[in-house]
């Protein structure tokens, strides 16, 4: 009996599927997929092969920026474990590593970056300089992870900081603003531009700070992890954890931002990235030791070697991973920058757009988060 049209179509599909099967099995085997390899992998990682894994969203790629810092753990782990890529299916991630907020903002504003993990001060500066036209904060990522580490032979109490040289990563960055505000509240005077005054605020790249500390050219530093723990490993002592200065011991240290142009043109891609970050944060909080190892593996790929256990072990638990952008604390940080005369009074109305994040959180059965009245209208 001759084959009908439907039968011929079915046969053709069967032949194609059979031909493709060995290739698929080989590809999965080469990636380490299988019951044994997948035992300890996070739910939603690259090993979970989606039925529509080849399907692209509205953009063929998304360029994501981050810092090689532990305070950017969502990015480090999300990329290392494939949790963000999993949600994007066939849309490719192009990761980009940055050393400072201004360069990442420049990339976002210049159109060479779509989404970025970044601190609150660069977010504020980038939003204000573009008059609210270039970026939106779309999620939180991390809280805490900032410490004042000092030479215990020279500084034994907070009052001993007067007359000493204390490093911050960069003029106007998140830690610099916090330290200047702390100095002001002590009643001491420092010129915010030069850093000279009752305390010498020395703006020093985090990569250089440990050597400067060992050489004695600075007496301490107000810095994020893992720099803080590097200083401790070199003989420093933690004099203050910044979380102690905040209500509920929470303050935003890392946000997720997006180009407004990309958000408008590719909301499906942005939503997929947020699904990935929410799942990443959930996995990190449920598996802190595995997540710490994952973040360290990503840092090793970036720098050529992992962080020593004596650095990463004390650093990791001081960082709280969260989807909540802690918007009220960003507002406070902007007020500190104005008080320090580093920026004019900013209009931050519209800096947040948490619509897609709250959609993702609701679908996952998680509570929605607030923009503290600074949401896009």
What does this structure look like?
The protein has 14 helices and eleven strands. With 377 residues, it is α/β, with parallel strands linked by helices. Helix 6 (174-185) links the parallel strand 6 (165-168) and strand 7. Mean pLDDT is 87; it is low at 1-39 and 43-52. 42% of the residues lie in helices and 16% in strands. Helix 2 (73-80) packs across helix 10 (267-286). The strands form two sheets. The protein has a six-stranded mixed β-sheet, sandwiched between helices.
The arrangement of helices and strands along the chain is: HEHHEHEHEEEHEHEHEEHHHHEHH
Question: How many DSSP E strands?
Answer: 11
Helix content: 40-55%
Give the number of helices.
14
Task: Give a topology summary.
Elements (H helix, E strand, L loop, with lengths): L4 H26 L30 E6 L6 H8 L2 H6 L3 E6 L3 H10 L4 E4 L1 H10 L5 E10 L1 E5 L14 E4 L5 H12 L14 E4 L5 H7 L4 E5 L2 H7 L3 E5 L10 E8 H6 L1 H20 L1 H16 L5 H7 L3 E3 L5 H13 L15 H9 L14
Parallel strand pairs: 1-2, 1-3, 6-7, 6-8
Antiparallel strand pairs: 3-10, 4-10, 4-11, 5-8, 5-9
Q: How would you briefly describe this protein structure?
A:
The protein is of the alpha/beta class and 377 residues long. Helices cover 42% and strands 16% of the residues.
Key descriptive features of the protein:
disordered N terminus; 42% helix; five-stranded mixed beta sheet; six-stranded mixed beta sheet; 14 helices; alpha/beta; single chain; 377 residues; globular
């Amino acid at each position: 009996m001759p084959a009908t049209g439907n039968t011929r179509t079915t046969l053709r599909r069967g032949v194609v599927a059979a031909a493709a099967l060995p290739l698929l099995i080989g590809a999965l085997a080469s990636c380490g997929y299988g019951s044994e390899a997948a035992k300890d992998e996070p739910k939603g990682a690259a090993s979970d092969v989606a039925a529509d894994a080849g399907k692209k969203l509205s953009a063929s790629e998304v360029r994501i920026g981050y810092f090689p810092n532990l305070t950017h753990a969502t990015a480090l782990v999300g990329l290392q474990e494939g949790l963000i890529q999993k949600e994007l299916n066939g849309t490719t991630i192009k990761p980009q590593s940055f050393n400072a907020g201004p360069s990442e903002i420049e990339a976002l504003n210049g159109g060479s970056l779509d989404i970025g993990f970044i601190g609150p001060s660069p977010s504020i500066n980038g939003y204000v300089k573009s008059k609210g036209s270039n970026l939106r904060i779309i999620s939180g990522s991390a809280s805490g992870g900032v410490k004042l580490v000092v030479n215990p032979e020279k500084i034994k109490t907070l009052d001993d900081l007067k007359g000493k040289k204390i490093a911050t990563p960069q003029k106007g960055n998140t830690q610099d603003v916090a330290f200047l505000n702390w100095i002001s509240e002590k009643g001491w005077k420092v010129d915010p531009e030069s850093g000279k005054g009752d305390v010498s605020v020395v703006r020093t790249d985090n990569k250089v700070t440990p050597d400067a500390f060992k050489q004695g050219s600075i007496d301490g530093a107000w810095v994020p992890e893992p720099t803080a723990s590097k200083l401790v490993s070199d003989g420093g002592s933690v004099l203050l954890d910044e979380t102690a200065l905040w209500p509920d011991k929470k303050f935003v240290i890392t946000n997720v931002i997006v180009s407004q142009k990309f958000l408008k043109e590719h909301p499906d891609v942005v939503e997929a990235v947020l699904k990935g970050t929410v799942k990443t944060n959930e996995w990190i909080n449920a598996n802190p030791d595995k997540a710490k190892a994952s973040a360290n593996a990503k840092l090793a790929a970036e720098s050529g070697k992992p962080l020593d256990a004596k650095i990463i072990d004390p650093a990791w638990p001081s960082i709280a991973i969260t989807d909540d952008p802690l918007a009220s604390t960003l507002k406070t940080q902007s007020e500190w920058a104005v008080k320090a005369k580093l920026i004019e009074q900013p209009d931050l109305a519209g800096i947040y757009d948490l619509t897609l994040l709250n959609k993702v959180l609701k679908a996952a059965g998680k509570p929605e988060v607030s923009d503290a009245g600074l949401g896009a209208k």
